[in-house]
Amino acid sequence: METNSLLLILILISSLIPGILILLFEEEQAFLRSFLNLFGAFAKVTLVGWVFVGYQQGENYTFIYGLAPDLTFALRIDQLGLLFAALSSVLWLVTTLYAIGYLKGGKHQRRFFAFFSLCVTASTGIALSGNVITFFVFYEFLTLSTYPLVVHRGDDKAVEAGRTYLWYTIGGGTVLFLGVVALFVLAGPIYFGQTEIIAGLASEKSLQLTVIFFLMLSGLAVKAAIFPLHGWLPISMVAPAPVSALLHAVAVVKAGAFGIARLVYDVYGISTAEELKLLTPLAIFAGFTIIYGSVKAYYQEDFKKLLAYSTVSQLSYIALGVAITGLLSTTGAVVHLVHQGIMKITMFFAAGNVAETYGYYRISQLNGLGRRMPLTMGAFTIAAFGMIGLPPIAGFVSKWYLGLGAVEAGSYWVVLVLLASSALNAAYFLPIVYRAWFCEAEQNDVHQKHAGPFEAKALLLIPVVLTGMFSLAAGLFAGSSYSPLSIAREIAEKLYPYLP
Amino acid sequence: MIWMLAIILPLLAALLTSRYPAGRRNAGPIFVFASLPAIGLGLVEVSGITLDWFILGTHFSLDTPRRIILLLTGILWASSGLFSGSYLKDDKRRGTFNFYFGAAMAGNFGLLIAADAAAFYTFFALMTFASYGLVIHSQTPAARKAAKMYLVMAIIGELFIISALFLAVQSAGSTLFVDISPALANAANGPFIFLLGLIGFGVKVGAIPLYFWLPLAHPAAPVPASAVLSGAMIKAGLVGWMHLAPVGLVAWPSLGLMMVSLGFMSALGAVIIGLLQVDPKTNLAYSSISQMGLMTAFLGLGLYEGIPTSLLLPAIALYAFNHGTAKALLFLGTALPTRVGGYWRILMWLGLGLAVLAIVGGPLTGGLWTKYLLKTFLGKTNLPGIDVFAYLLTLSAITTTLLLSRFLHLLRQIEPPKESKAPPFILPWVFLLLAGGWWTMSPTLLPEGLMNQILGEKGMMAFFWNPLTIWSALWPIILTAGALVVVFTLKSTFLNQWIKEKPLIPPGDFLYVILWTGNLFEKQIQKGIAFMQSFVESRHSAEKIIYKFIDNKKTIQISTQAEALLRRWEVVGISFIIFFLALFFLI
Fold first, then answer.
1. Which of B58, B166, B587 sits opposite A415 (nearest CB)?
2. Secondary structure of residue A152 in the 3-state scheme
3. Does pLDDT of B533 surpass 70?
4. Which of A216, A284, A386, B540 has a CB 3.0–4.6 Å from the CB of A395, allowing a cystine?
């Protein structure tokens, strides 16, 4: 096998092997487990970085394994996939640190870390898959490997949440499967980027293609938490903080959003999707979800629930950006894939820190917390301002491109949706910021669970500071040539070759 | 490098003076040092730079009007910073204050030197949100209320600004402001975009009807923060308008008329409400609204045809310079009467009097000069009703005299200390007195060519020492002062009864109209909210509706657990079907 193909496999097994090995270990072998996990995470980041540099230098990375005639397992690198792979591997590393600190001394760590690694394998697989079939396989793999994490606590609430989670995701998987099979029957195997196949069929088989698109979209919309298929996400917040952070802010939900981007950009192609008028319904649903999620978030009293509904809202920014055609909105959609991830993971880390250190779970308990946890709440404040879309934080860059793209496409209602969402984001995030920094804590309420040199356990503090800094840097240095923005811009430029 | 320093130094200062005790002790000098690059950029012309990597590609450069305002801003932050260093020495939250003070300073400098929309918006937001911390500083219920009002209005403003920028940048195809205003002139929806900007920045300027947060927020902040809020930060909105306004390129008479009439409405109306105030700082805040109204009106003139661009904007900037320094001096001055005793009081009254004269436009002051500059435009336009405009300008001089006499009167009622002494923060106050724009220094800020265009060959001194000019500046003041003296001597009881404890109209006047209207409809609104909440607060409202639907059809026979499961399952299934089918309907 060539080195380049081997690299792709290595990226996958850098988390698969630790996952399997951890299952073989004893529960007590904490050090070995942590070491293996961190080693895998570091290896994955390094490998993705290596491939990234190679790809920029014009190397080609493909791995194809024929399962049956026309049915192949294909891994291939392109920029969109690479961006998603980089996002999930870097955030996996950070979250692994966090999880080690968070779960220290807890039960069932073996199960947790094993499935955690499998999840990351699945999401990297989704990023690297080169055709629809491979994508589907990893997509389902992700569904199954997440379930044990959702029910990790094992109480009634968690089991109930797990059940709901399965109903939604298995349902979504089934619908997606229908779509994938129908597509296969109609058009044969489609590798991502071969948009000419569908384009050739568009005029004759427009009805079939429309049905297939909507089937696949319905399947993907579950993970992307588009209304009314978002119900599983807020309930799954019973999972431990690292799970909520990585899976429900990044890996799982992004798999849906990323899938929608793939479907539109690399399977149907923008021009075909536009010709068949498939994007307007998506835009309307996404726009509605943005407002709906924000309104729901506004009424939440539980910190993590609030963040969950905010995720519902923010994810649809990506779908909305995909649904509006144009260089700018595509850039906005792709860059928000990254930006939303780093901002939201910061918020979940912060919420987890607060819960771990002081046992606070409700918004009303956060009074005066800024003084006691300046770094945590500082990072949270940065991320919250970013979510509102205030510069110079990452979220502003996304909003700027989405807004400009909407104006460019003449969809002024989208601008109104963005503005309304910004206002709502301000309405539910600023009270938290206000409580943390400008209210005095009631003294009798303070009992710190943790004692140490820092405001929280170091392993919980480092990740939140890191991702908070990422969120700031991604906006502050958005113009530099290695920022998520410039990569997103390159991706968008390739999708619109006819533009200067 | 100096461009970046103008932003980085204030940010560093914010960190130093908040985190470290040594920094906190020396906050005054540190803030002065941090504003030096900005003052330097205001005095010396430096060629602009482009930083591609910063935000969305940033361009820093200055033109004449912005340079004048930057100089003003630099001087104000330096003197207010020095002032705050000793004024807040015993404040237990001074570290927090310093943090927000430095951050707002960075934002204020940054937005002035930014020449592209994204960076401008960035620094504007930084300034706006950092000054929230200044407004709420005292954490009294009044300050909290003011800060809340401030924040709500600021966010509304931000939303209008960002939508204006979206449209403007898209129609210009560039983020540079030099491209944006010509593009607005040519775009079909140019007036609409400008209107959005007018509203967005109007919040900061305190334009009618968006001003009501201002008389609450500006006085709520500690004295040095009020000075920069009312002297420097309020001008940021004006700068935003200047960026968008295609002065001299268009004829938008209806927008122009709107700005002019709204401008004069606030110029005259704010005075009336301001007169009824009992707090000197609130009185000054209304005076700021009134003065910004005049600037609004003059910028509005620029939307008519035939206005020379190169003159109007620098003239407005000079007016802002004069007003900003004088207003900051008055704001800082409100801290003096309780602390300054003996002969020092003479200096105090002299300085305050000078500042009042400068705002009113008294002889030999920058106020007169800048008013004259603006009046020259009236001569150069041949708009109908321009005479009315000139009369209104004179009338505003009279009303402003009234308002600021009331301010001095309010200060006079404050009990002076027994012994002759002066607090250390009188030093920065004197510094500001010397550096202020009421001296005839302000014309020197203008480029040579402009001077000649306005004054002709005779030059500045001939203008200032001309008896005619002196007389035309003096008579409104003499008239008002005379009238006041007459009223005082004849019927002092009337003035003494003049609402001593509570203002006749509460600060934030218009806000109460809104709240009152809200109260009228309170019941209906509450009903509406209750309905919304009952709808939204359920865990999954959409699902709940479906539940109800199902419950009606099904008899409950199966065990609760299985039923819950079934419900779930059906809910999920129905959601899928709804989603899938709806997609077709929406095509």
1. B166
2. coil
3. no
4. A386
C-alpha distances (whole Å) from B95 to each of A380, B19, B22, B269 are 21, 7, 11, 39
Q: How large is the average pLDDT for residues B244-268?
A: 86
Q: Chain A neighbours among B 93-152 (CB < 8 Å)?
A: 118, 121-122, 125-126, 129, 133, 136, 139, 144, 147, 151
ipTM score: 0.90
Q: Which two tokens stand for residue A392?
A: 């110079």
Is B586 close to A281, i.e. CB distance below 8 A?
A: yes
Q: Output the pLDDT for position B555.
A: 38
Taking CB atoms and an 8 Å cut-off, how many pairs form between chains A and B?
132
Contact B162 A163 (CB under 8 A): no
State how far the Cα of B211 lies from the Cα of B270, in Å rounded to an integer.
Answer: 10
Contact B122 A422 (CB under 8 A): no
Q: Which residues contact A116 (CB under 8 A, 6 or more apart)?
A: A19, A37, A96, A99, A149, A242, A243, A246
Q: What is the pLDDT of residue A321?
A: 92
Report pLDDT for B456.
63
DSSP string, B200-224: HHHHHHT-TTS-TTHHHHHHHS-HH
Identify the CA nearest to A70 among candidates A138, A137, A133.
A133
A477: nearest CB among B53, B144, B568: B53
> Tokens 């979940």, residue?
A348
Residue pLDDT, tens place only, A338-376: 999 999 999 999 998 888 888 888 888 888 888 888 899
Closest CA to A382 of A394, A367, A366: A394
Q: Which residue, among A169, A274, A301, A396, would best test binding to B if mutated, counting the most B CBs under 10 Å from its CB?
A: A396
Task: Indicate yes or no: CB of B582 within 8 angstroms of CB of A407.
Answer: no
Q: Where are the domains of chain B?
A: 1-246, 249-503, 507-537, 541-587
Averaged pLDDT, A116-128: 89
Chain position carrying tokens 């219920």: B141
Q: Is the pLDDT of residue A443 over 70?
A: no
A496 contact partners, CB below 8 Å, separation of at least 6: A270, A326, A327, A330
- Is the CB of residue B295 less than 8 Å from the CB of residue B266? no
CA B560 from centroid of its chain's CA atoms: 62
Cβ atoms B228, B222 nearer than 8 A: no
Residue showing tokens 């000019």: B469
State the Cα–Cα distance between residues A228 and A100, nearest whole angstrom.
35
Residues of B in contact with A221 (CB under 8 A): 579
Beta-carbon separation of A229 and B579 below 8 A:
yes
Give tens-digit pLDDT for A28-73. Answer: 777 888 888 888 889 999 999 888 888 888 888 888 888 777 788 8
Measure in Å the smallest separation between the Cα of B541 and chain A Cα atoms: 10
Q: Does B577 touch chain A (CB under 8 A)?
A: no
When comparing pLDDT for A196 and A334, which is higher?
A334
Dihedral (CA of A25, A30, A31, A37) sign = positive
Q: Assess B90–A contact: CB distance below 8 Å, yes or no.
A: no
Q: Which of A167, A281, A391 sits opposite B587 (nearest CB)?
A: A281
Question: With an 8 Å Cβ cutoff, is A333 touching chain B?
Answer: no
The DSSP code sequence of B402-444 is: HHHHHHHHHHHTSPPPSS----TTHHHHHHHHHHSTTSTTGGG
Please tell me which of the candidates A214, A390, A400 has its beta carbon nearest to residue B118. A400
Question: What's the Cα-to-Cα distance from B257 to each of B195, B262, B299, B302, B395, rounded to whole Å?
Answer: 13, 8, 11, 10, 19
Distance CA A128, CA A75 (A): 5
Radius of gyration of chain A (CA): 22
User: Which residues 224-253 in chain A show a CB within 8 A of chain B?
Assistant: 226-229, 231, 234
